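Repro:
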Amino acid sequence: MSKNKNKGSRSTLKLLLQITITLGVLAVVLLLIPDSDSRRGTPSRFVSGSFWQGLASPGELSQAHAFLETSCKSCHTPVAGPVATSCTLCHANNESLLQRQPTAFHADIGSCRECHTEHQGRGVSPTTMDHTALTKIGLKQLDNETPTDQATAHQLHGLIRDGEGFGGSDSNPYLTNEERVLDCASCHTSDDRHFGLFGLDCASCHATSSWNLPKFQHPPPTSVECSQCHQAPPSHYMKHFDMVSRPVAVKPEARVDQCFICHQTTTWPDIKGVGWYKHH
């Protein structure tokens, strides 16, 4: 009795497996059906692949990729899914992207889907900056390069695993170990408002979620060393400073480096005795 029951269970599982495989193959075939009815030369939702693709789609594409909505095979490869070669067919010669300092690193990236996700809808950008994913991509590339690069990758893997040896970055609790090994300055030099005065270890103070410092506390309003961190706007080095800035603040003797005489620490346009005044 028990043997017959076990035999029946195996037969049922075998049947279910066969059905699953058949449905999977059928789904792939249907997805690859052309998007128009070749017999009539007109679109047909039920003959074309768009109907079946619509059933399988996890959501709308972004506005930039909306024209590919009914052509899954433009980006997806059966079994493998979206692959980088499909992306580079359209984006490999994007000179505006490769010639801009913040995005030039894409020339060396071999994978796209870690940071670029689709099917989120028309109003959502397909770009999600994932610094941890960027680290993984970089390490994977180093592992496949020269022995020197492989040694570097091995060292970085050790730092990530052990969580020690990051120098000033150790004090920043807002970063993962994967994010700590990134060379922030290589991408964010143009964002440096410190003009290099604080060095190149951005991670010692900043997080990847926002440039704002979570625990930063501005010196008190009585501080007179503003120029150590702040640089005056170009207009302060022109006649504008004598003809507009000083008269508005009613501080005719103020020097350019004496920010504290005219400005509040709440925000730069908050002028002492005047209030909000935006004139630059």
